[in-house]
Design a protein that fits this description.
Distance between the termini: 51 Å
CATH architecture of the largest domain: 3-Layer(aba) Sandwich
CATH topology of the largest domain: Rossmann fold
Largest sheet: 6 strands, mixed
Strand content: 5-15%
Radius of gyration: 21 Å
Oligomer: single chain
Structural class: alpha/beta
Strand order of the largest sheet: 4-5-13-10-11-12
Number of domains: 3
Bound molecules: pyridoxal-5'-phosphate
Low-confidence stretches: none
Length: 453
């Protein structure tokens, strides 16, 4: 069967499929947002032959899935290069085993219950590396195709900015402007944002995350910036969602059962949407659980269609402090409300419950989970208690605990060992410009920066 290459349409274009204007993958990655303000989704979610997806390694699994999914939008050679260059780190799946059971009978049945899928072994220690590095690869292909350089603006409150900066730094034809709020990121997150990188301008905004987002949006209207071919790299970029399907597929292949409940620590719902796309393509699952902190709009919505969005609340799992999740629009375009409720269960937990869970997991199993993963672990425990017969539960672990030493030490009373990526960071020079939260200040900073140093 000959497949046509993947093409993308806006979530807001009319539903008469013939009239939808489709764009290529690389063009959608360059644009970020569709012209009508919508988000790009596949014109038709590709169905793949699940049995033909390899289970021998993350690398070959990813290549065999992507080749089918992209339907020739990238050559096989490019798909192999993408996986080798952008996704060149480990993706371990670890069973949570109680210390009291280690090495004993009974371990096997316990093992079948909760697994943690560690997605934080990339250069900036969060799962954002999957999306950012793939986006960088695809953007590089696009620039080779058009010869046009781009300036990427990113508003970040946590992990996105450093993953994007790390992925894009030093690329021919790419400049990156990072905007982050002066005192809303953790100490280590800020350190990761301001290390000196070629082609990256970090701006420490005297304001909050909403100010940063407002400035990024506003920049697209500024005449003096028109020549820079502006784009953005938030999770609205389809180039970030595509690689995020791969680790779900890999976990499903490794466990080899259709009865998996994936538990996803959620904020903007990009990670969840990627899982849903993999499922619609042919990956069998039992269900998805979307686990939220006190920013619980989506989990309320799943049980009450009249639930309303709210302003974001600050919590200890700060990368999930999102009041109105942007990928909600994609989920809505991909699933009917009935399908959504059948496939996805929502749960939310307070900071206290998160800390209690982190502490419980550490004392029972010796496993140290970061605050975001601990929200998902709280959901996994609740699911296990509620479900009659235990299905397999896979908890997505989105960040390395060493990124949040204060919180982890508070809950576990032990110190986290720094991975090599963080030790290396401390030796590097830093650079950032303090910025007043005004459009003019941003424009001036971007135009007067000496980009080639
Ligand atoms: C971004 C982020 C999340 C939330 O992911 P979404 O795709 O926005 O739902 C969860 N955990 C960590 C550590 C993150 O950085």
């Amino acid at each position: 069967m000959i497949k046509s290459p993947l093409s993308l349409v806006s979530t807001r274009s009319p539903d008469l499929s013939e009239e939808r204007v489709a764009v290529s993958l690389l063009s959608a990655v360059e644009k970020g947002l569709a012209e009508d303000g919508g988000l790009y989704i596949p014109k038709k979610v590709p169905r793949i032959n699940w049995a033909a997806v390899s289970n021998s390694s993350f690398h070959s699994c990813s290549v065999s899935f992507l080749e089918q999914w992209l339907g020739g939008a990238l050559s096989t050679k490019k798909v192999v290069e993408l996986v080798e260059q952008a996704l060149n780190f480990e993706v371990p799946l670890k069973p949570l085993i109680p210390t009291s059971l280690k090495g004993q009978e009974g371990v096997k049945s316990f093992q079948e219950q909760i697994h943690v899928l560690e997605l934080f072994h990339g250069p900036t220690l969060s799962f954002k590396d999957f999306g950012a590095r793939t986006m960088a690869f695809l953007l590089g292909e696009r620039i080779r195709e058009t010869g046009k350089s781009v300036t990427i603006l990113v508003a970040t409150s946590g992990d996105t900015g450093s993953a994007v900066a790390d992925g894009l730094s030093g690329m021919e034809g790419v400049r990156v402007v990072l905007l982050f709020p002066a005192s809303q990121t953790s100490r280590i997150q800020e350190q990761q944002l301001i290390v000196k990188r070629t082609g990256v301008l970090p701006l420490r905004v005297k304001g909050n995350f909403d100010d940063c987002q407002r400035l990024v949006k506003g920049a697209f209207e500024v005449q003096r910036l028109q020549d820079l071919n502006l784009s953005t790299a938030n999770s609205i970029n389809i180039g970030r969602l595509i690689p995020q399907m791969l680790y779900y597929v890999w976990a499903a292949k490794m466990l080899g059962t259709p009865h998996i409940s994936f538990v996803v620590p959620s904020g903007n719902l990009g990670n969840l949407t990627a899982g849903v796309m993999a499922h619609l393509s042919g990956m069998p699952v039992s269900q998805f659980v979307t686990a939220h902190n006190s920013n619980d709009f989506f989990s309320r919505y799943l049980s009450d269609p009249n639930a309303s969005q709210t302003a974001s609340i600050r919590t200890l799992s700060n990368a999930m402090d999102v009041g109105s999740p942007s990928n909600y629009e994609r989920l809505f375009a991909l699933l009917s409300p009935v399908e959504m409720r059948e496939l996805i269960t929502g749960m939310s937990f307070s900071d206290d419950k998160m800390l209690e869970t982190m502490s419980r997991v550490y004392s029972e199993t010796g496993y140290v989970a970061d605050p975001h993963t601990s929200i998902a672990l709280a959901a996994a425990f609740k699911l296990r208690e509620e479900a009659g017969s235990p299905s397999r539960i896979v908890v997505l672990s989105t960040a390395h605990p060493a990124k949040f030493p204060e919180t982890v030490e508070l809950a576990t009373k032990s110190t986290v060992e720094k991975p090599m990526q963080l030790k290396e960071l401390e030796t590097r020079p830093t650079f950032a410009i303090d910025l007043d939260p005004s459009q003019k200040a941003l424009t001036d900073a971007v135009l007067s920066h000496e980009w080639n140093r």
